[in-house]
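note to self — DONT lose this again. spent like an hour looking for the file last time. sequence + predicted structure for the chain T wanted, 386 res
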Amino acid sequence: MISLLERARDVAERFAGPNAEAVDRDARFPSEAFDALKNAELLSAHVPAKLGGPGATILELAGMCEALARRCGSTGMIFAMHQIQVACLVRHGQGSEFFESFLRQGAKAQRLIASVTTEAGVGGSTRTSIAPVERLANGNCRLRKDGSVVSYGEAADDLLITARRGADSPASDQAMVFVPRADCQMERTLTWDTLGMRGTCSLGYIVTAEFPEARIVPAPFADISAHTMLPFAHVLWGATWLGIASDAVDRARAFIRDVARQTPGVTPPAALRLAEVSGTLQLMRLQVQAMATELDGLDPSAESGRAVLSSIAFALRMNNLKVTSSQLVVDIVTKALRICGTAGYRNDSRFSVGRHLRDAHSAALMIANDRILNSSAPLHLVSKEI
């Protein structure tokens, strides 16, 4: 039987890679890759077996994100963001008849889920909401949210939206709401003409929806964020950036070998730089894999797992993963560019790493590194370990 990782690699080679330049050039959704991912039944990879999915581990998800991002950074990132949303429902929706039913159906239908967590007016904080969930006289609920960055919103089948739990709730008392894309009105407010990650199509929308109470995820968003959304994001984003960095190093290695064939018996001077950057890539891979393995070992339904997930030390380790991996991807791709020289700088070269470098620079902006470091700084004053 073909493993999940082998299926992801096949999609990467046959669909994501061949269309990566067009996706980047036209800033369009990588539809070919996601049609193939749906056909390969990979969108439900993290759904547990009891609900009809294969129950992939976080380490396995990370491997799939890396494989896809090696060929197309936008494809890898969208896959990562989708799996983060699936994880929120798997880990915090079980016990709810509606969400268990949705996960069973989703495993069959391969529905793509997008997130509406960012909001205009809150300064980039995902743990603060302005828009409230309003209770209507007919028993339904309604919300209207100005989502400043909604990745692949128009291509998604469903949305997970954060909002204040009620009109009288404080901004930090948030709920996560599930709404099918077909039941939403989405008014575009911002375009997406960016330096990199152009295929994520992260436009801004005012999202309006009416929905039954049963579509509100039972757990407080504070727990969803701390125990699942942020840890999964930092691991799977890190794996995506690892894929981008890995392909850049592969291109640098291919360039050095090409030069070496032209001068038999002579090691090209830039081979020294290749040896150096391969060590940095190895450190990045070990960090991502270590945190994925740790997260796999923590059960959010158990008291011991929740204790670790809520601890200062765990938060610092996850913050460190995000900041360092987002820095390392830029460092590694930049070094690969220097190894390849003009061949790496040209967009029409098989050694080109221009797209890799542009995609890499998005990493520090996804939950801005300065925001993370500012939140980590006071934690170091009270933490006894990391």
